[in-house]
Amino acid sequence: MRFVPRFTDGREFAAPLGKVVCVGRNYAEHAREMDAPVLDEPLLFIKPATSAVNLEGCIAAPFERGQVHYETELALLIGEPLSNVAPDLAEQAIVGIGLALDLTLRDVQTRLKGQGQPWEIAKGFDGACPLSAFLPLSEAPNWSALEFTLEVNGESRQHGLGADMLFSVPVLVAEMSRHFTLLPGDVILTGTPAGVGELPRGATLSLSLTGGLAVEARVAG
Ligand code: ZN
After folding, report:
1. What does pLDDT average to over the chain?
2. Beta pairing partners, 208
3. Which numeric CATH code is attached to 20-219?
4. Distance in Å, CA 92 to ligand 1 centroid
């Protein structure tokens, strides 16, 4: 079954999700908590379409493979083909904003990183990308004013502010389009702010985005 992105008004997007293009270390505070240097070129990776699931509802993860970390991220839905475009064109192709969890098998990732190997299996497993519905956009919002939060069992854990992104949304999407053609139905994850941590089994997650998106999810026990 192909995952089809949805809008908050219930409409389905015209195409199924193709790929999820992600960036690592797009917030300085998060790079610091990971003991990793800030980079002058974005660190890009892809989650396959099969990693996408609905964020609302029950979130399952392969806990038997080691620690699963949550990373709360602003997600962008792409509405037009983009290949090697400038930031203003990249920005115009975004038709929705939502929230995502970039679920990460942290022990597996740390082991593979240490061995100098690719870490797809730590970030691309089935269910590794819970996605909310997307707020429809007719014009680009003020990216730096966007704010989003994560609470785990009612406790504040992550707070992201667009202004803190090292690569702004238009610059990031343009850079992604230099490496990978982006197609309608592709989703961009823009990186996580500080505060990542282990996803507790059975926990209730509350995510919100300024401008009216609020999502509750439950982690499988
Ligand atoms: Zn991430």
Report:
1. 96
2. 149, 214
3. 3.90.850.10
4. 23
DSSP 24-84: E--BHHHHHHTT----SS-EEEEEEGGGEEESSEEE---GGGS-EEE-EEEEEEE-S-BSS
CA distance 185 to 78: 6
Measured in angstroms, how far is the CA atom of residue 136 from the centroid of ligand 1? 23
- Separation of CA 35 and ligand 1 centre (Å): 15
For residue 71, how far is its CA from the centre of ligand 1 (angstroms)?
Answer: 5
Do the Cβ atoms of 191 and 34 come closer than 8 Å?
no
Between the CA of 63 and the centroid of ligand 1 the distance, in Å, is 18
Three-class DSSP category at 153: coil
Domain coordinates in residue numbering, the chain: 20-219
Q: How far is the CA of 25 from the centre of ligand 1 (A)?
A: 8
pLDDT in tens, 15-71: 999 999 999 999 999 988 988 888 889 999 999 999 999 999 899 999 999 999 999
